[in-house]
Amino acid sequence: MKSLEECRARIDEIDNEVVDLLNRRMEVVRRVGEIKHESNSAIYRPEREKAIIDRLTKISESSGGLLNSQAIEAVFLEIFAVARNLELPERIAYLGPEGSFTHQAAESRFGAMSDYLSLGSIEAVFKTLEASRAKFGVVPIENSRDGVVGETLDLLGKSSVKIVAELYMPIHMAFATKAEKIHHIKRIYSKDKGFGQCREFLTEHGLDVVEHIPVESTAKAAILAAKDPEAAAICSHIAAKLYGVPTLFENIEDTHNNATRFFILSDFKNGISGEDKTSILVRLKDAQKAGALVHFLEDFNNADINLSKIESRPSRDNDGFGYWFFIDFFGHIDEPKIQSLIQKHADEVTWLGSYVKGEL
Ligand SMILES: C=C(O[C@@H]1C=C(C(=O)O)C=C[C@H]1O)C(=O)O
């Protein structure tokens, strides 16, 4: 068996090779960037990144390597982020403030080195993209407990920005405070839903009787708790760390499978990956007529296209109780069977994006 010094010497040798290989990879990436500039095409290609991760996972598994698919993904997402920055540094706008769950989602896809812009509302993210002040936007679309984020859906219906990727992120809450003892805490800040998600924890610790102050985001809660030694925040542990509030308890949520789905927005269409989802918005011409939605959905069934989500929204135009429908289905808009279905309903359907199916 090798000694610690021998192991470290070997690690140093391997790291030298890794850096050399990464530099060689980045030379090629730079050329890819030039080709994309010449053809004016998109830098970020999620379907290509997915194909790389899938291929490397297979290689790692079949050679008995220690890296599983999550490890390969964690390492390579960072490499891709650095690569994209080298091709063209592109700004990412997200629903802030810094340390929000959306910020975490953005960093998980765009890495630590990107240029981020924190914005105060979902609408501001859409507006920033429309004005080309950022290339990408990251916004929440639904939570496994609280359901859909209506503002995101409504803005997708009005805006020209497209969905280019989705990602699911587990949501864990931390309890952070500068108070030395729990019984010194007089008030707790969080987003309204933060309190709802941690009810059992609050009762168990006698914290259901102190004042609960709802604020716009869990990150804002951490900012307020940082200034007040008699306060606590229910927030992400990243926000607690960022704003210097010690975390007293982690994972305090009542159910531990809480997750949020986020959309990455931009202005281009992805290629087909073979494992895609598409989001559309449907305004049925005869929505008031019985069966209009059923007939529409029957066409999906007949074409053997599986739906993964359908959500109705009030149209808010002046037609009384008008509705539109937000529908997710499996497949890419450029696949022939989907094209023929969409063309049949062309006046009713707005395409919102086709993107690689995300996994939790
Ligand atoms: C290099 C490329 O650009 C980006 C970076 C990738 C990479 O580092 O491998 C892959 C896809 C793109 O998001 C490419 O399109 O091949």
Automatic annotation (TrEMBL):
<keyword id="KW-0413">Isomerase</keyword>
<keyword id="KW-0028">Amino-acid biosynthesis</keyword>
<comment type="function">
    <text>Catalyzes the Claisen rearrangement of chorismate to prephenate and the decarboxylation/dehydration of prephenate to phenylpyruvate.</text>
</comment>
<feature type="domain" description="Prephenate dehydratase">
    <location>
        <begin position="91"/>
        <end position="267"/>
    </location>
</feature>
<protein>
    <recommendedName>
        <fullName>Bifunctional chorismate mutase/prephenate dehydratase</fullName>
        <ecNumber>4.2.1.51</ecNumber>
        <ecNumber>5.4.99.5</ecNumber>
    </recommendedName>
</protein>
<comment type="pathway">
    <text>Amino-acid biosynthesis; L-phenylalanine biosynthesis; phenylpyruvate from prephenate: step 1/1.</text>
</comment>
<dbReference type="GO" id="GO:0004106">
    <property type="term" value="F:chorismate mutase activity"/>
</dbReference>
<keyword id="KW-0456">Lyase</keyword>
<keyword id="KW-0511">Multifunctional enzyme</keyword>
<dbReference type="InterPro" id="IPR001086">
    <property type="entry name" value="Preph_deHydtase"/>
</dbReference>
<dbReference type="GO" id="GO:0046417">
    <property type="term" value="P:chorismate metabolic process"/>
</dbReference>
<dbReference type="GO" id="GO:0005737">
    <property type="term" value="C:cytoplasm"/>
</dbReference>
<comment type="pathway">
    <text>Metabolic intermediate biosynthesis; prephenate biosynthesis; prephenate from chorismate: step 1/1.</text>
</comment>
<keyword id="KW-0963">Cytoplasm</keyword>
<dbReference type="InterPro" id="IPR002701">
    <property type="entry name" value="CM_II_prokaryot"/>
</dbReference>
<feature type="site" description="Essential for prephenate dehydratase activity">
    <location>
        <position position="260"/>
    </location>
</feature>
<keyword id="KW-0057">Aromatic amino acid biosynthesis</keyword>
<dbReference type="InterPro" id="IPR036263">
    <property type="entry name" value="Chorismate_II_sf"/>
</dbReference>
<dbReference type="GO" id="GO:0004664">
    <property type="term" value="F:prephenate dehydratase activity"/>
</dbReference>
<dbReference type="InterPro" id="IPR018528">
    <property type="entry name" value="Preph_deHydtase_CS"/>
</dbReference>
<dbReference type="Pfam" id="PF01817">
    <property type="entry name" value="CM_2"/>
</dbReference>
<dbReference type="InterPro" id="IPR045865">
    <property type="entry name" value="ACT-like_dom_sf"/>
</dbReference>
<dbReference type="InterPro" id="IPR036979">
    <property type="entry name" value="CM_dom_sf"/>
</dbReference>
<dbReference type="InterPro" id="IPR008242">
    <property type="entry name" value="Chor_mutase/pphenate_deHydtase"/>
</dbReference>
<dbReference type="InterPro" id="IPR010957">
    <property type="entry name" value="G/b/e-P-prot_chorismate_mutase"/>
</dbReference>
<keyword id="KW-0584">Phenylalanine biosynthesis</keyword>
<dbReference type="Pfam" id="PF00800">
    <property type="entry name" value="PDT"/>
</dbReference>
<dbReference type="GO" id="GO:0009094">
    <property type="term" value="P:L-phenylalanine biosynthetic process"/>
</dbReference>
<feature type="domain" description="Chorismate mutase">
    <location>
        <begin position="1"/>
        <end position="91"/>
    </location>
</feature>
